[in-house]
Structures are given as C-alpha cells and as structure tokens.
Amino acid sequence: FPSHDTPALSQPTNYSESTPAKTQNFDGPTLYQLLIGEMALNRQDFSTALAAYMAATQATQNPQIAAKATDIAIFVGRPKVALSAAEIWAKQSPQDMEAQAITALLCINQHQNVNSVPYLARLQNGDAKQSMGYFQVLYEQLNVPADQTFFIEALTQLNKAEPRQLGAALALSNIYLMREDPASALNISSMALKENIPDETLYILHSESLRLLHHEADAAAFMEQAIAQNPTMVDLRLYQVEALLAEKKEDKARDQLHALQNIENLPSPTLLQAMQLSFDSGWLPETEFFLHQLDHDPAYTGMVSYFFGRIAEMKQSPPGSIVTGK
User: Fold this and answer.
1) What is the C-alpha to C-alpha distance for residues 262 and 239, in angstroms, rounded to an integer?
2) Cα separation, 320 vs 277, whole angstroms
3) Going residue by residue through the chain (326 aa), what tens digit of pLDDT does each one get?
4) Cα 123 to Cα 1: distance, rounded to the nearest angstrom
C-alpha cells in the first residue's frame, strides 16, 4: 500500500570536511573548546575533538553542541559518551524528535531499556505520522529479539496511556504487519478507530490487516466508507486502486483514478503514483492526464518526457507489441 516518508536518524558525519557547530554568544573558554574541537576534526584527531566537544557540552548544556558531540561519539564508536551527550541534547530540546529518538536508541542498545521510556513518550506526543516514522525507524534498528519485544511492549503501554496520540498505534499496527501477524495489527487498528480521529494511515493499515486475514469484502466496504467520509484523502484512493487491481476489479479501480482527476492541486508524488498505476494498467488517457499535471514540476521533467515517449511508441505500434509496466 502507499508508503509514507519516514525520518532517517542522523548518519555519522564524514569528518574529512567538518562543519562547525553553530556558535552563539559563548564565553571565552567555550569558544576555545569549540576551536580546539574543530581543529582536531580537520586533522581527524577524533579523540581530541570528542573531548573538546564534550567539555563544551558539559559547560554550556547547549543542544547544538551536544548534538555534534553525540554525532562524533557515535562516529568513533564511543556509545557511552554518545549517550551522555545525547541525554543533554534531548533534555534541552524536548521538541526535537530526532534527539529523543537517538537517545532512546542509545539507551536500548546499552541495555538501559527503562531509561528509554521518557524519550519514547516524547516521540509519542508529536505529530502522529512523524511519530510513527520515528518509531518504525527505531524498531528497524533493533536486532536483538529481546529489545524488539521490549520496544513493542513500550509502545503498547504508551498507546494505552495516550490512545488519542496515534503514533504508537500506527507504528504497532505496521510492525505487526511486518512480523506477519495481521490479527494483532487488526486489534491495534480497531482500538485506534474507536477514538474517531480521521487518519489516512490508520485506515490503510486497518484495511490491509483485513485483507491479509482474507476478509476482502470487509476491507473493501471499510475503505469505501472511509473514502466517502474523507474524499480528499488521496492516499486512500491510491491504496484502493492497488487493492482493486489485485482483485481484478479494473473498472472500479479506474473509477477511483477518475475521482483523483477531479481533485485539484495533487502533490507530485501522488500524481506520479497515479500515473504509474494508470500506465501499468494500460490506461493511456489517465496516464496522459497525470503526466500533464506532473509536467508542472521541473523535478519530473525527464520522467514526464520518457513516459510521453513510451506512449507515442504504443500509439504507433500494433496492440500488444509494447509491454507496459516497470
């Protein structure tokens, strides 16, 4: 079903070309430590750089400096030092979801599972889609089954404590689907639906769970109702197109694409997916419509030209001589 962008936890910086931490009105000793740290990074003297940045972090409690100290410590393989810096970063920037996620992950990786809970709770308080993304990334970083079990239980408790914050529920449902446990996924999504909070991802996860449990009719009825009640939720229609095509219900799938054509100002990723579904199905009028809409975005100029070229070939060739699809 339609994928959602997920955040990526910061990858360790390539310190062959260091970027200085943003400076503010720091005192002389702090500026000296930052200068030492940057000079050491330029020489790739990571031990000296880390010591300098940690000294500046402890002295200032500045989240930007702490974030860079965390990054350096991770880069050089010093997880305990990284956690020390990350805790300051997360404390001083409670709204910074990346800070909370990295600190939680460092806690779990160092067998301090209980200490990760406050940071996970702060993630839960963010935007549902963004929270889900961070929870998903964290789960995928956990390789030890016991840590995965802890993480699922932690999200379960967060979901029970704050059921109207959907991030944990969305992540749990998706994690259970990844684990090929659609019954548990359905249980989570069913409870979340009782909160009556409109959410595209929740509707898709619920429908997908039903389909995987072979309740196709229930899944179709549920999605039809969700679309009727939320006609501008375009991801629902894209999901339904894919589901209907999988069930060989081409006419109904095409109707959903026609409904998308009547929605103004669709984002480029939506237009691209709708175009690809149309093209793969051999529906050239719909393909051309979405290509013309997509042509307004310069980032897709090359792709638009390619598909218009493919369409021209198809129109000039005998039926069946050119195969659509990826």
Assistant:
1) 17
2) 18
3) 434 444 556 554 554 444 555 546 788 888 999 999 999 999 999 999 999 999 999 999 999 999 999 999 999 999 999 999 999 999 999 999 999 999 999 999 999 999 999 999 999 998 999 999 999 999 999 999 999 999 999 999 999 999 999 999 999 999 999 999 999 999 999 999 999 999 999 999 999 999 999 999 999 999 999 999 999 899 999 999 999 999 999 999 999 999 999 999 999 999 999 999 999 999 999 999 999 999 999 999 999 999 999 999 888 865 544 445 54
4) 25
Record the pTM: 0.83
- Between 97-109 and 128-141, two packed helices, what is the crossing angle to 10 degrees? 30
Kindly state the tokens that stand for 171: 């992540």
> How far is the C-alpha of 112 from the C-alpha of 104, rounded, in Å?
9
